[in-house]
Amino acid sequence: MAHPKRQHSAQRRHKRQTHQKLNAPSLHPCPQCKRPIIAHRVCPFCGYYKGKPIVEIEVKEKKKKG
Fold first, then answer.
1. What is the DSSP string of 3-40?
2. Do 53 and 47 meet the contact criterion of CB atoms below 8 Å apart?
3. CA angle, corner 55, sides to 52 and 59, nearest 5?
4. Is residue 12 part of a domain?
5. Which domain holds residue 43?
6. In the prediction, which pLDDT does 51 show?
7. What tens digit of pLDDT does each residue of 42-60 get?
8. Residues in contact with 47: Cβ distance below 8 Å, sequence separation at least 6, in sequence order
9. Which residues pair with 36 in a beta bridge?
10. Domain count of the chain?
11. CA distance 35 to 29
12. Burial class (CB in 10 A: 0-12, 13-18, 19+), 47
């Protein structure tokens, strides 16, 4: 196994790690319900994609306290 003769500097390590980061997904408004969604995906709120209903979304009923 090869071993480095000298320790790599922190600057060299940081230069290598600059590309290892997470990007936030870009959100666009849904044309039907105007809520923010990830592009090129079925809207999880209304179930539409490209102006056509794809998935039927069930509406949850709120529970009454008491």
1. --SSPPPHHHHHHHHTT----PPPEEE-TTT--EEETT
2. yes
3. 115
4. no
5. 25-58
6. 87
7. 999 999 999 898 988 887 7
8. 53, 54, 55, 56, 57
9. 29
10. 1
11. 5
12. middle
Establish if 40 belongs to a structural domain. Answer: yes
**Does residue 54 contact residue 37 with C-beta atoms inside 8 Å?**
no
- What is the DSSP code (8-state) at residue 13? H
Residue type (1 letter), 11: Q
Q: Comparing C-alpha atoms, which of 24, 49, 25, 46 is closest to residue 35?
A: 46
Long-range Cβ contact pairs of 7-15 (< 8 A, separation 24 or more)? none
On whether residue 52 sits in a domain, the answer given is yes
Give the angle 34-37-41 at the CA atoms, nearest 5°: 120
Q: Which residues of the chain have pLDDT under 50?
A: none
**Which residues, at least 6 apart from 29, have a Cβ–Cβ distance to it below 8 Å?**
35, 36, 37
Number of residues that make up the chain = 66
Q: What is the pTM of this model?
A: 0.57
